[in-house]
Amino acid sequence: MTDAIELPIAANSDVVLVRQRVRTSAQQVGLSLVDQTKVVTAASELARNTLVYAGGGRVRIEVVGNGARGGLRLTFADEGPGIPDLELALTDGWTTGGGLGLGLSGSRRLVDEFDLDSEPGKGTRVTVVKWAR
Amino acid sequence: MTVHGDADRLRIETLLREQEERILKRWLDIAGAAAGGRADHGVLGGRMREIYQAMLRSLSEGDDSTDLRGLLAELSRIQAREGFTPSDTAVLVLSVKEAVYETIEASEETAALRGYIWFSKFVDDLALYTFETYVTAREKIITDQSEQLLELSTPVVKLWEGILAVPLVGTLDSARTQVVMEKLLQALVETGSEHAVIDITGVPAVDTQVAQHLLKTVAAARLMGAECVVSGIRPQIAHTIVTLGIEFGDIVTKSSLSDALAHALRQSGVQLTQGASKRVVVATERA
């Protein structure tokens, strides 16, 4: 059971579009209202990070299932400068972009699975999964 | 071949000039029929005559077609504004080919017929150009409209003497927040209000950017001596804000607009009493 959508992230309006598509998919999977809002917010944070720090990238929205329950997997990939210090980037309040510094660390708390893969000069890939309860 | 080609081209030019009235009339007929009576024939005829003459000038003067392109861009802009589709606009230009072809056929000249191939390419280029300018014009209209919408969608309303409210609906991006902040601060000055309620019931998700914008707006209002209450925090939003780790500090937040209004009224010293007849009696304490 895979149902994937790929969207580009190149402008602020794309962030809005990503948010809308994630919400629609979250409803399909049957996430509760609170979980829908959480995954939509995480998608918003990660999409904006892709835009602000890497100048753009792509997101893949997948409906996944492991038999017992359904879930939503989001993969944000960019070919930006990458993150030199992953631990520092995941620290609350740390920002290089003038924001609140909670986007990445907060997103990790909003989802069930969080995988951050980045190499300076090679780009960044963030994969998150939210399972339906 | 080139010499031959040039001669054919010259023949077409002469034909276009000699048969101007006839071609123009036919062009207007064909284009008018394609537009399905939606176009104003008088105005369209005048515009097409100008384009035709610019086309003749452009043909005889070689590569300089600034005039012609300017006229075509103007035509596209008007068509876009009047709600014609891009194909309508391109067909309008392309239909000149049909009119010219009929004239050539009637003249029974092979040289002109050969030159027609070249003329056809020339018109295709023009049609493509109109198509492009049409799209640009349409994009301009959309940008203008979204700017107008930005203004429309952020009203500042007065709830009570000294209490303002800003109901936010939809996506809160940087541009939008800028407008909200400016309008709110301006309204605070104009009305001399000391309380403002920012209602986010209509905002679907509050992420760190939205939160940061809200915090900045509240801080700016505070600098002007006004207190802001953020209302419309629904359970799922509260959950998300806490999980994200956003601190609202000492900013007063309420779940509903009515709670926020009650809070603001209390703060400004207005007492509400519920009588037996359920009529709300209001008294203001003068400090």
Automatic annotation (TrEMBL), chain A:
Domain Histidine kinase/HSP90-like ATPase: residue ranges: 34-133
Pfam families the record matches: HATPase_c
Name by which UniProt lists this protein: Anti-sigma regulatory factor
From TrEMBL, chain B:
Highest taxon, organism lineage: Bacteria
CDD domains: STAS_RsbR_RsbS_like
Residue ranges of every copy of the STAS domain listed in the record: 153-264
Keywords in alphabetical order: Phosphoprotein
UniProt KW Phosphoprotein keyword: yes
PROSITE patterns for this protein: STAS
PANTHER family in the record: RSBT ANTAGONIST PROTEIN RSBS-RELATED, RSBT CO-ANTAGONIST PROTEIN RSBRC
Protein name: Polyvinylalcohol dehydrogenase
Species of origin: Nonomuraea cavernae
